């Protein structure tokens, strides 16, 4: 696996990408070689870009000078001349251990599945966000934020954006700097539906959804989320 350094390194572990061909770690994305095979035209190859938001884009290299870039996997499948288009998870492939493996059978779609197919939904069908903590700038104690509803997510979102957040700003619970901090053994329990002491997994870590991103918020995170969402609909 050949790869350049970049913040994309945080998206997948080294073990997950070890046998994947054409990996490049970019600034906020992972790029891998991909392709789609047509019985008539043969292999069309491209470069699949994977973003933590779940967005996927393919820059096509099917022929020298092909100007098609930022294609959706479905559009790339059609562009390749695939006879049975419409099942890109099975027809668009990556090279893993020297073999063409459908994207749907690789780890490469885990963020796509998380944002599009509700892989982080709990038993009730609602998005499952684990509890988070913010440290008070006055007493230096960490306080828990439960993220079970959109309202609770907004409280945490706004608190995280406040530089000098204090216990007095906590509106969901009556708490002051005089109250004891949770014990460490209690803090590890963050409400993951998969494992009580989970440190973060696809079931409880959300990289952005309509429950924890807000149309009336002007922060860059929310603006980018809804801008990308609109782009996917175009």
Order of H and E elements = HEEEEHHEEHEEHHH
| Structural class based on helices, strands and sheet pairing | alpha+beta
Q: Main beta sheet: strand number and arrangement? A: 6 strands, antiparallel
- Give the overall pLDDT as a whole number: 82
Low-confidence stretches: 1-6, 117-127
* Count of DSSP H/I helices: 7
Strand content: 15-25%
The backbone outline, from C-alpha atoms, is elongated
Q: Span from first to last CA?
A: 34 Å
Which helices and strands occur, and which strands form pairs?
Blueprint: H1 14-17, E1 24-25, E2 30-38, E3 42-50, E4 56-60, H2 73-79, H3 88-91, E5 92-96, E6 99-102, H4 110-116, E7 132-135, E8 142-145, H5 150-161, H6 184-187, H7 220-233
Antiparallel strand pairs: 1-2, 2-3, 2-5, 3-4, 5-6, 7-8
Task: Give a description of the structure.
- With 234 residues, the chain is α+β, with helices and mostly antiparallel strands.
- It is built from 7 helices and 8 strands.
- The chain has helices at 14-17, 73-79, 88-91, 110-116, 150-161, 184-187, 220-233, and strands spanning 24-25, 30-38, 42-50, 56-60, 92-96, 99-102, 132-135, 142-145.
- The strands form 2 sheets. Strands 1, 2, 3, 4, 5 and 6 form a 6-stranded antiparallel β-sheet that branches. It has a two-stranded antiparallel ribbon with strand order 7-8.
- The chain is elongated and about 70 Å long.
């Amino acid at each position: 696996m050949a790869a350049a350094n970049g913040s994309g390194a945080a998206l997948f572990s080294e073990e997950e990408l070890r046998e994947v061909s054409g990996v490049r770690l970019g600034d906020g994305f992972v790029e891998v070689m991909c392709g789609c095979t047509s019985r008539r035209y043969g292999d069309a190859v491209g470069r699949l870009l994977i973003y933590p938001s779940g967005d996927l884009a393919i820059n096509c290299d099917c022929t020298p000078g092909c100007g098609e870039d930022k294609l959706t996997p479905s559009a790339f499948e059609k562009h390749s001349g695939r006879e049975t288009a419409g099942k890109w998870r099975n027809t668009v492939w990556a090279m893993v251990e020297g073999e063409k493996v459908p994207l749907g059978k690789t780890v490469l779609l885990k963020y796509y599945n998380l944002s599009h197919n509700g892989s982080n939904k709990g038993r009730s069908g609602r998005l499952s966000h684990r509890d988070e903590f913010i440290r008070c700038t006055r007493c230096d104690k960490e306080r828990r934020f439960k993220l079970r509803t959109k309202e609770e997510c907004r409280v945490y979102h706004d608190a995280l954006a406040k530089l000098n957040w204090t216990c007095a700003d906590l509106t969901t619970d009556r708490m002051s700097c005089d109250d004891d901090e949770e014990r460490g053994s209690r803090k590890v329990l963050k409400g993951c539906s998969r494992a009580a002491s989970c440190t973060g997994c696809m079931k409880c870590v959300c990289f952005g959804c309509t429950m924890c991103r807000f149309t009336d918020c002007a922060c860059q995170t929310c603006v980018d989320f809804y801008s990308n969402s609109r782009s996917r609909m175009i």
